[in-house]
C-alpha cells in the first residue's frame, strides 16, 4: 500500500515501543492458539488475541488512518464490538435476540480451514478476519513509503514474518484436525 497521507504525525517512542511489542505478542499468541487449539485454553487465548488486536487497531487508526480501507474499517469495528463484549459481559452486544445470549462461540460452519467467532450478532473469522487484518496491519506499518519509520530491526521483521507464516499454517492444520473430530459449535 502506498502512503497517501502527506501530513506527518510524529510516532513517539512510547507508542512505537507499544506497537512493536504488540506485533511480537500477536505472532507469539497465534502460535499459542495453534498449539492449544484442541483444549479449553483456546477460548482465553482467542479473547486475548482480540484484546491485543483492538489495541493495535487504536495505533493503526491514530498513525495510519489514511491507509484504512472499508474492509479494514469493518473488521476493526467488529473487533471493537467483540472487545467490548469480552470486557463487559452484561453488554447488550452479547445478545443475539432478547432471550438469546451469545458470549462467544466458535463455529466450524462455512469454511474448511477457518472458524467463525461470534459474540451476540457480531461475527468475524479467525484466519481470514482477525489474522488477515493483522497481516494487513503489518504491511501498513512496515510499508517503506510510510511516513512513520518503525525503528524495529529489519531482520527482526523478516524473522517475525517467517514465524507468522509458520504459525498460520500450524493453526489451519489444527482447525482442520479439530473439524474432523468435532463438528459445528465448539465453545
Our Rg estimate from Cα atoms comes to 17 Å
The oligomerization state is single chain
Number of domains: 1
Q: How many E strands?
A: 5
Q: Residue-averaged pLDDT, rounded?
A: 82
- Report the structural category: mainly alpha
Helix content: 55-70%
Please indicate the percent range of residues in DSSP E strands (runs of 2 or more).
5-15%
Strand and helix order: HHHEEEEEHH
Distance between the termini: 37 Å
Global shape: globular
| Major β-sheet profile | 3 strands, antiparallel
Instruction: Please give the count of helices.
Output: 5
Describe this structure as you would to a colleague.
It is a single chain. With 187 residues, the protein is mainly alpha-helical. The chain has one domain (13-181). It has helices at 13-35, 42-63, 70-87, 126-141, 154-181, and strands spanning 95-97, 100-101, 103-107, 116-119, 122-125. It has a three-stranded antiparallel sheet. Strands 1-2 form a two-stranded antiparallel ribbon. A hairpin with a 2-residue loop joins strand 4 (116-119) and strand 5. The longest helix is centred in the C-terminal third of the chain and has 28 residues, at 154-181. The relative contact order is 0.17. The model is unreliable at 1-6 (pLDDT under 50).
